[in-house]
Write a structure and sequence with these properties.
- The chain has 367 residues and is α+β, with helices and mostly antiparallel strands.
- It folds into 2 domains: 238 residues, P-loop containing nucleotide triphosphate hydrolases (Rossmann fold, 3-Layer(aba) Sandwich), CATH 3.40.50.300; 105 residues, Nucleic acid-binding proteins (OB fold (Dihydrolipoamide Acetyltransferase, E2P), Beta Barrel).
- Helices cover 26% and strands 35% of the residues.
- Strands 7-8-9-3-10-11 form a 6-stranded mixed beta sheet, sandwiched between helices. It has a 5-stranded antiparallel beta sheet with strand order 2-1-4-5-6, with helices on one face.
- Strand 1 and strand 2 form a beta hairpin.
- Helix 2 crosses helix 3 and helix 2 runs parallel beside helix 4.
- Bound molecules: adenosine-5'-diphosphate (ADP) and magnesium ion.
- Magnesium ion binds next to helix 1.
């Protein structure tokens, strides 16, 4: 069953500097029951606004939202179910815990609001704290705890009402990298135990890849692509998704007679089959870790720069007047200035033409 459904959801804000900004633009989504689904995208792309509309903190400009099959926001009918009646748990980026309440009172709060009997509250808070590795800490105040522990209080408070859906808005962004990784596993574990559906918002691609069953990438309010992490990594539908899901090279090429050449130089082909397209100029997208660098065979280039990184060596290689980034094991290293040969695997092709989102991006950065 689809647990969360968004149909043509749009949100517009009117501001003095930008005029009307469409923060979320005709957003369609179906999240299945029990799924861990991530929203990935750069800052300002509309992730939080979408989440706030699902939670009921934000009105829609257009569209419909359903939770567990029931309508909760229907713009055309002015139907709107308040947040507390949507059956959601939520955790935000800032450690939103009440400093003047101890851990017990922080976590018990949503149950007290619902007038749950005191004995049951004690029982359920105890269980929630245990699941978040905070057992026995009922009387401690948040200010005596680390950021990671404070975020655990927020998690415990979110799960204490046994919600069907958890909305997590960059909950790990303020934690140090090691703790983030630990908490990723804890969130997955909680999901298995409580069997809730998760929407996890992040701007960190490895976090989204590690956690999600499926995910989407969005840009300037528009959903660019939806799929499993591997589908999105291996087959990004456009340049934006490609560059957002890992390091990317974009090389300007021209096609002629089934062959591929660097733009402006038809002397030697690049050694790959040309894509079937009506266009004569394309963008060749490659990942630095799929290009093979050697001394014998392939397209000739010159090493411009070598950087020794912990797990591999990175080279900037000049191909005509363009450069590509190549990552290779620490064997048979090349020196700067040395001639090398490159072999390309898994090329992905994009149109060389500017698309409409390039123009909108420029408009937003100009203001
Ligand atoms: P994200 O969470 O992906 O960083 P947001 O959803 O917070 O992005 O913001 C999306 C866009 O909507 C941004 O351009 C932001 O400036 C704008 N926006 C968000 N909230 C408001 C608001 N209350 N008033 C005006 N503009 C807003
Ligand atoms: Mg946000």
């Amino acid at each position: 069953m689809d647990q969360i459904v968004l149909k043509n959801v749009t949100k517009r804000f009117t501001t003095k500097t930008l005029g009307t900004v469409t923060a979320v633009d005709n957003f369609n989504l179906n999240v299945r029951e029990g799924e861990c689904f991530s929203f990935l995208g750069p800052s300002g792309c509309g992730k939080t606004t979408t989440l706030r509309m699902i939670a009921g903190f934000e009105d829609l400009s257009e569209g419909e939202i359903y939770l567990g099959g029931a309508p909760v926001s229907i713009r055309s009918r002015n139907l709107y179910v308040p947040p507390e009646d949507r059956g959601l748990g939520m955790v935000f980026q800032a450690f939103a815990v009440w400093p003047h309440m101890n851990i017990f009172d922080n976590v018990a709060y949503p149950l007290k609001v619902k007038k749950v009997p005191a004995a049951e509250i004690r029982e359920r808070v105890k269980k929630a704290l245990k699941h978040c590795s905070l057992d026995g800490m009922e009387k401690v105040f948040p200010s005596d705890l680390s950021g990671g522990q404070q975020q655990r209080i927020a998690l415990a408070r979110a799960i204490v009402t046994s919600p069907k859906v958890m909305l997590l808005d960059e909950p790990l962004s303020n934690l140090d990298p090691k703790l983030r990784e630990t908490m990723r596993f804890e969130i997955k574990k909680l999901q298995k135990e409580f069997n809730f559906t998760i929407i996890f918002v992040t701007h960190d691609q490895s976090e989204a890849m590690a956690l999600s069953d499926r995910m989407l990438v969005m840009d300037m309010g528009v959903v660019k692509q939806i799929g499993t992490p591997t589908e999105l990594y291996n087959n990004p539908t456009d340049k934006f998704v490609h560059s957002f899901l890992g390091q990317s090279n974009f090389t300007n090429v021209e096609l002629s007679g089934g062959r591929v050449y660097l733009k402006g130089d038809r002397s030697v082909p690049l050694g790959m089959e040309a894509p079937k397209t009506g266009e004569t100029e394309m963008l060749l997208a490659t990942r630095p870790n799929t290009i093979e660098i050697n001394r014998e065979e392939g397209f000739r280039g010159t090493v411009v720069k070598r950087v020794f990184l912990t797990d591999f060596t990175e080279y900037i290689v000049a191909l005509g007047d363009q450069t590509v980034r190549v990552q290779a094991p620490h064997r048979n290293m090349f020196r700067a200035g040395e001639t090398c040969y490159l072999r390309f695997a898994n090329p992905i092709w994009y149109s060389a033409k500017k698309d409409a989102s390039d123009a909108e991006r420029e408009r937003r950065t100009l203001v």
